[in-house]
Amino acid sequence: MTICSTEGGPMGQPSRPDRLLGTVLRAQSGFFWVQTEAGVIECRLRGRLKRERLATDIAVIGDHVEISRAGGMTGAVEAVLPRRSKLARRGAGARGAHKEDVLVANLDQVLLTFACAAPSFAPRMLDRYLVICEYSQLDAVVVATKTDLVAPAEAQALFAPYERIGYPVLYVSNTTGAGLEALRHQVAGRISVVTGKSGVGKSSLLNALQPELHLATAAVSTALNKGRHTTTVAELIPLPEGGFLADTPGIREIGLWQVPTEDLAWCYRELRPFIDDCFFAGCTHTHEPNCAVRAALRQGAIAPERYESYVRLRSGEV
Ligand SMILES: Nc1nc2c(ncn2[C@@H]2O[C@H](COP(=O)(O)OP(=O)(O)OP(=O)(O)O)[C@@H](O)[C@H]2O)c(=O)[nH]1
Ligand SMILES: [Zn+2]
């Protein structure tokens, strides 16, 4: 996994009038399906690009690219525009230790889905996901599902600690439809990824959120002249109100990604303001004297549960 860049911006004009700008919806076996104003165009890559982009994936879903058209709805990717953000694993594969494995480019937010009950809320797991989002410098939005199964005050009590440290929390029920409008608003016009453990209601959420989703997906699959292979192929699913949901197999495992121990305290965002004030430069905030983090904990500026979560994650416990 790697820290994302913040370079680049919205798409502007292509460098030449005979070219088009677009977004990569799907990448598979050297082919790229690019959404442009002229429709979805199936592209190959220019050989030059393969040589230029050795340190990163050449193009992945979410990438903004410039293409030239060949015949019909085919073409070639001529350039990959700078990425605004990325969700990436640090790869140590055959192509070199520094090769990164980018799952999604230009990702706007990660929707961390957790049920209020059935399955019961697992705060340590949420902490783990939040650490990974912080490390990747990606915006995290907590989606608290199944609010119909608990009293409103109970749902609030579960997630209030996260709201207090600045994470947006959306409370939703797929059963009653409560909160879905706010969620629809949250995903409109953005590239989002939905993650969370099995049974929390991710599929129900996406279906309830966008009844047209299956239609939209079918339309893309038709354009691609292929069936849908959600388990193996990464793709962006266009949303009717603009924006995309990223569907990639690797996303299901992000909760297991490792963050270097020395970066962990920084990834607990409420610890961050204090870590430079510790007496020892390499302070682990677990036992050292004159630790600013533990002083903040004693003064109530850091929630004990989150501090304990930090200590446990540090020691390798999940
Ligand atoms: N009461 C209640 N039940 C829900 C809600 N959302 C989903 N469920 C139920 O919870 C179960 C799991 O929902 P899914 O949408 O399949 O969960 P998922 O996260 O996609 O699960 P995986 O596909 O295993 O990853 C189903 O029986 C749903 O009907 C909700 O808001 N309230
Ligand atoms: Zn310290």
TrEMBL record:
Name this protein carries in UniProt: Small ribosomal subunit biogenesis GTPase RsgA
Residues annotated as binding Zn(2+): 278, 283, 285, 291
GO cellular component, one term: cytoplasm
InterPro entries associated with the record: G_CP_dom, NA-bd_OB-fold, P-loop_NTPase, Ribosome_biogen_GTPase_RsgA, RsgA_GTPase_dom, RsgA_N
GO molecular function: GTP binding; GTPase activity; metal ion binding; rRNA binding
Cofactor(s) listed: Zn(2+)
HAMAP family in the record: GTPase_RsgA
Top-rank taxon: Bacteria
Subunit-structure text: Monomer. Associates with 30S ribosomal subunit, binds 16S rRNA.
Chief location of this protein within or outside the cell: cytoplasm
E.C. number(s) listed in UniProt: 3.6.1.-
Residue span(s) of domain EngC GTPase: 105-252
Top EC class of this enzyme: hydrolase
SUPFAM superfamilies: Nucleic acid-binding proteins (SSF50249), P-loop containing nucleoside triphosphate hydrolases (SSF52540)
